[in-house]
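Appendix B. Chain record.
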Amino acid sequence: MKKLLSIAALALLTACAFAETYSLSIGINDYPEAKDESGNVVDNDLSGCVNDANAMRNIFIKNYGVKESNTKILLDKNANGDKFLDGIKWLITTAKAGDQVIFTYSGHGAQIDDPESDEADKKTELLVLADGMLVQDDFFNEVANLLRINGVNCTFIFDSCFSGGMSRNVDGRYQVRNRVMQYLPKNPKLMNRKKEEQGLLALAKNAKSRQVSTPKQGEVVFMYASKESEPSKDISGIPDTPAHGLFTLLLLDILEAEKAMPVKDIYEVVDEILAGINKSLMEDGKKNNMEESAIPQFNQGPNFEASATRSALPIILPN
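Structure tokens predicted for this chain:
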């Protein structure tokens, strides 16, 4: 009996030992110049995205024990269309049943008219890569499904937005910029989603053929810095605080304090913090006799999509 228990325990340890976590982090501050309707050059650069990508990767390694060799990071000019697709292919072909992958993106979002869109507003939301390539939002649903059916758990974190504008606070101590590319570079390159998805499907089928048996389907969670119609803030110039996306800055603080916090609780905490910040800004503005409409507010509503089971678990599942 003891021998059988020992064999069972060894089998369990062996199974756990094969569970791995792989992460791909993207951060883009440096974007191509574009022009507005009047032909004026528009500065599309951001400040906190590279810091976001580095910090997320570092916290995965330091707090969650992710192997450094299991992480990839693409920054600025290296976050182009070809290397982005190479990174996605690496996730699909490397992760196996029982593993998990984490994808993080910090940079510009955009929105274009799309008559074929299933959405009521007939628009498609996009991520903007460093070479101007535009990646449609539905692409990530397909990637998630390809991984999920192979038994891989997935976490996608996006700190970007799909509405435009730029604002500064009244005294100019720090800069707040929306992470939306309102004016796209001339002749932007829209990724051929169908072609790329067919290629990824072939890779996923090959990965599935390596499985010993049909795996249990994985769980997926999508985490967003803001809702579809709201901006995501890029903040720089605060003393003793590196430039970051507002959502990523808050997320990092939460994960440093409580790495096992469930996804749904993270969003409750973020909402509470944002409400507290806005309340403090409003009170200070009124004390300084500012018009209420002129008092800065962070009207950013982070959101997530996941099953009830997955949302009750941490960002990174324990192996």
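Further analysis of this model is presented in Appendix C.
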